[in-house]
Specification:
242 residues; alpha/beta; eight-stranded mixed sheet; 8 helices
């Protein structure tokens, strides 16, 4: 399969890309700038391709989508790119995966990185600063992207859309003292992106270590999903249905 892994310069994204390459898949890496892309040379030498763009910048997301659409079709996308704090939280964690999903042609599987922190998110869009003019809430951003994943599963039944809580793992973002298992932290994403096992061919799930879990109640609230989709469509000028 041909699989894009966003935010694959380090951490869970790099681990997933490495594992998928080892399994024989065609992998497209993503880094936010040329310096970070250079660190991916070992994976590129094994046959991976790479796209570069800062997902805090919507124009860069559009350019990446256009570049990908001009090449061989993608089968799956692991929307791994994310930030923990600062003004880029909502642009990178929520707006970019929405926009990339709306713009990409062809992928039949989308896997979105959620977090256990999404349970602390507020199911309200009031005051959301989608452009990143001020620091955003990580918990809110993960609630929003998890709800978006469920909305996509509902609105595009021909597409497999799932969200994954990778656990609190010892990456650059998670910190060295994080208690969860780094290997288990990326295996569910790979499985949902590439496996033909019956459970991996389901949609609309929220997963933790290959076990389907119950997410925040707002995730499957269709009114909240529709409000979120409308807000993102207005903000980006791009509809999921277009």
């Amino acid at each position: 399969m041909r699989i894009l892994v966003t935010g694959s310069a380090d951490g869970l994204g790099r681990a997933a890309a490495d594992a998928l390459l080892s399994q024989g898949h065609d992998v497209v890496l993503h880094a936010r700038n040329r310096d970070r892309a250079a660190s991916l040379a070992p994976l590129v030498s094994r046959g991976a391709e790479i796209v570069v763009g800062d997902f805090a910048d919507r124009d860069a997301v559009r350019e990446v989508a256009a570049e990908l659409n001009s090449g061989a079709p993608l089968d799956s996308v692991i929307h791994n790119a994310g930030v923990w704090r600062g003004p880029a939280v909502l642009p990178v964690n929520t707006v970019a995966p929405y926009l990339l999903t709306a713009l990409l042609e062809g992928p039949q599987r989308h896997v979105y990185l959620s977090s256990g922190s999404h349970f602390a998110g507020q199911p309200s869009l009031a005051g959301a600063d989608w452009s990143g003019g001020r620091p955003g809430s990580y918990a809110d951003s993960k609630l929003f992207v998890t709800a978006f994943s469920a909305a996509l599963a509902r609105l595009r039944p021909e597409v497999l859309s799932n969200a994954v809580d990778p656990g609190w793992v010892p990456t650059r973002m998670g910190g060295p003292g994080a208690p969860d298992d780094l290997e288990l932290g990326h295996q569910t994403q790979e499985w949902l992106a590439a496996s033909d096992q019956p459970e991996a061919l389901t949609s609309g799930g929220y997963w933790y270590h290959r076990q389907r879990q119950q997410p925040h109640a707002a995730v499957h609230d269709e009114a909240f999903q529709d409000e979120l989709l409308s807000a993102l469509a207005r903000e980006t000028g791009t509809s999921l249905q277009s």
